[in-house]
């Protein structure tokens, strides 16, 4: 039974193809007021410098609905700060996910309890594990692109094994709607 306990700590509350598939009405009804989001391969492909039009529109929609949004990334300040400035969204860089420090820093900034926050990310061992540890709602998305940092490529191997076990426990891999996958250009 022990193995099931560690596995459940990695189980996302939702698994969707991309941020654009998240039901924002449902998040609001759930009491979520702060959206924390990973950057690379969640909002845009890894190290992608620009803000795609579709992402800018999504961020406007999220803000108009009354959510606070904050980028929470393990990438460095150069990369994260530049992107944050470009899209006008605050960010915590070098967050050290899955450690709690960066998550707590973001929660403090918006004076929100973890129950009022949702974390969106493409990696189980950083984004999802860190969020679940604090009792946050956790949303896993498919990586936006197959190009990744070498460290991520290694953790993906272990992640694939865990994802299979989570799928055996009911996690459903989202169908990719090809019209919606626009991050690859
Ligand atoms: Mg990522």
From TrEMBL:
UniProt cross-references to InterPro entries, sorted A to Z: HAD-like_sf (IPR036412), HAD-SF_hydro_IA (IPR006439), HAD-SF_hydro_IIIA (IPR006549), HAD_sf (IPR023214), PGPP1/Gep4 (IPR010021)
A cellular component annotation (GO) from this entry: cytoplasm
Domain of life where this protein originates: Bacteria
Chain ranges passing through the membrane: none
Gene Ontology molecular function terms on file: phosphatidylglycerophosphatase activity
Stored NCBIfam families: HAD-SF-IA-v1 (TIGR01549), HAD-SF-IIIA (TIGR01662), YqeG_hyp_ppase (TIGR01668)
Protein name (Swiss-Prot/TrEMBL): YqeG family HAD IIIA-type phosphatase
């Amino acid at each position: 039974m022990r193995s099931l306990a560690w596995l459940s700590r990695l189980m996302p509350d939702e698994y969707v193809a991309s941020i654009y598939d998240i039901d924002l009405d449902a998040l609001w009804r759930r009491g979520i007021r702060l959206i924390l989001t990973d950057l690379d391969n969640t909002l845009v492909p890894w190290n992608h410098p620009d803000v795609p039009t579709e992402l800018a529109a999504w961020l406007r929609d999220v803000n108009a609905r009354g959510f606070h949004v904050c980028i929470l990334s393990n990438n460095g300040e150069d990369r994260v700060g530049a992107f944050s400035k470009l899209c006008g969204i605050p960010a915590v860089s070098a967050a050290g996910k899955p450690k709690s420090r960066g998550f707590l820093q973001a929660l403090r900034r918006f004076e929100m309890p973890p129950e009022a926050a949702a974390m969106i990310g493409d990696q189980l061992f950083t984004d999802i594990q860190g969020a679940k540890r604090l009792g946050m709602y956790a949303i896993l998305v498919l990586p936006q692109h197959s190009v990744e940092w070498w460290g991520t490529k290694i953790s993906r191997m272990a992640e694939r094994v865990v994802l299979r076990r989570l799928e055996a426990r009911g996690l459903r891999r989202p169908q990719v709607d090809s019209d919606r996958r626009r991050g690859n250009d």
